[in-house]
Specification:
mainly alpha, transcription regulation
Length: 201
């Protein structure tokens, strides 16, 4: 019987998942999903191969569980950040900054490549986690339009343009010491892009 980590089966399950997700996060950062194997994750996480297979039968199920875990944690942090901001323009800046910071830390293949690497049901589960995040951006833009601070001729297009801009890896694929300045530059551009006042945001 595999060694129980943490003194109980519940604690053991939580500890195994935490170790496995930490190992997967590092491997995604260093090598990308294409090189991930369950045996390699188990070795890096310091858990037995049988233990990881009990939790995740294949690497697709591991990736889906990881994305669900990360998305839940991120949305909680995002909501706290947005709640602390005041105006829609300030909330947009918080949203943009956090999205770019997440992009810098979260290394998954782009949409089309990821769709090719996963079966349709697994891809749909991962893609579904973008919905609440897009919903928050839509609400920010709607509030900004209502306040007269954001251009509102076509809000759906505006939301799509902002979301697209915040998914550009070129912004975050820079040396670590240049990342904060690159993010702040992008945040400023996004604010100006939606503003009703030319040159302001």
């Amino acid at each position: 019987m595999p060694k129980v980590i943490g003194g109980s089966l519940v604690a053991h399950r939580g500890e195994v998942r935490a170790r496995v997700f930490a190992a997967l996060r590092e491997q995604l950062y260093e090598r990308g999903f294409a090189s991930v194997t369950l045996s390699g994750i188990a070795a890096d996480a310091g858990v037995g191969r049988s233990s990881i297979y009990n939790h995740f039968p294949d690497r697709q199920s591991l990736l889906v569980a990881f994305v669900e875990h990360e998305a839940e944690r991120y949305v909680t942090d995002l909501d706290a950040g947005l709640q602390a901001a005041g105006s829609p323009t300030e909330r947009l800046a918080v949203f943009a900054r956090m999205q770019l910071q997440r992009l810098a830390e979260f290394h998954l293949p782009p949409g089309q490549a990821l769709a090719g690497a996963l079966d349709p049901s697994a891809y749909r589960r991962i893609a579904a986690h973008a919905d609440p995040i897009t919903g928050r951006l839509t609400a920010i833009v709607a509030d900004g339009i209502a306040a007269g601070k954001m251009a509102g001729r076509d809000p759906d297009v505006l939301v799509a343009m902002v979301a697209s801009a915040l998914s550009a890896r070129q912004i975050v694929d820079v040396p670590a010491d240049e990342l904060p300045a690159s993010i702040e530059s992008a945040v400023g551009i996004v604010r100006r892009m939606v503003s009703t006042e030319p040159g302001k945001g």
